[in-house]
């Protein structure tokens, strides 16, 4: 059963600077990352805000946008508006020369990253990761060493591209002697913030929407917002434990009908 993992620590319980108490972990999913805008909206309107943001793939872009803005419902609404306005060509533009070169093995990718770079440059409001108003870790994978890499300082847009680079689809990013692509967040999420409660925002796929289909962002956001509000309101989650902090986990409720 698919689940959403979340905690309900109010803003008043946030830890001191340098010791995060609540961390949002935003996973990948390409176009399905739109759902995270709805989840964040439900959290922010209840005063549940992060001391730390962790993201990879589409979650890296979402986390970087959130890290450059105040943790308010208005910010979540801005994120939702960005997703609603996206088209596949904005993020994954097809260029015949690049596509044919990738299929023929002459390139290491099928789609250029120009669109994603423009998107990140337009909406990420700081130049370097260490300038984020909310501490930010972007998670990538080094093709050369085979190790996960956590990006916490350096050029913000390059870091977003590295953490969002789907292997074989988008070009890997050279970073400090490494060749980076997106990473798959592992089960041991507590290692990203050992002392914090973790709020894990996955990119679920309730109606088997293709990750490259950006035409259903509005529906995904609406469904995720409604489901998160319901779960937070009725307290239908059962308490589990991960790392050093309690998390609440509840089943995903499938909607009766998919997007039209």
* Number of discrete helical segments: 8
Measured between the Cα atoms of the first and last residue, the distance is 25 Å
Query: What gross morphology would you assign?
Result: globular
Indicate the proportion of strand residues: 15-25%
Spatial extent as radius of gyration:
18 Å
Q: Helix share of residues?
A: 25-40%
Oligomer: single chain
Largest sheet, strands/sense/barrel: 7 strands, mixed
The residue ranges in which pLDDT falls below 50 over 5 or more consecutive positions are 1-15, 99-104, 236-257
Output the helix-strand order: EEHEHHHHHEEHEEEHEE
Q: Give the helix/strand class.
A: alpha/beta
Average per-residue pLDDT, rounded, comes to: 79
Total beta strand runs: 10
Describe the fold and architecture:
By secondary structure, the chain is α/β, with parallel strands linked by helices. α1 packs parallel to α8 (217-234) and α6 (114-123) crosses α7 (156-164). β4 (136-142) and β5 (147-151) form a beta hairpin. Strands 2, 3, 4, 5, 6, 7 and 8 form a 7-stranded mixed β-sheet that branches. The protein is built from 8 helices and 10 strands. Residues 1-15, 99-104 and 236-257 have low confidence and may be disordered. The protein has helices at residues 35-45, 58-67, 73-85, 88-91, 96-103, 114-123, 156-164, 217-234, and strands spanning 3-6, 22-26, 52-55, 136-142, 147-151, 173-175, 178-182, 197-201, 238-242, 245-251. The relative contact order is 0.23. The chain is globular, with a radius of gyration of 18 Å.
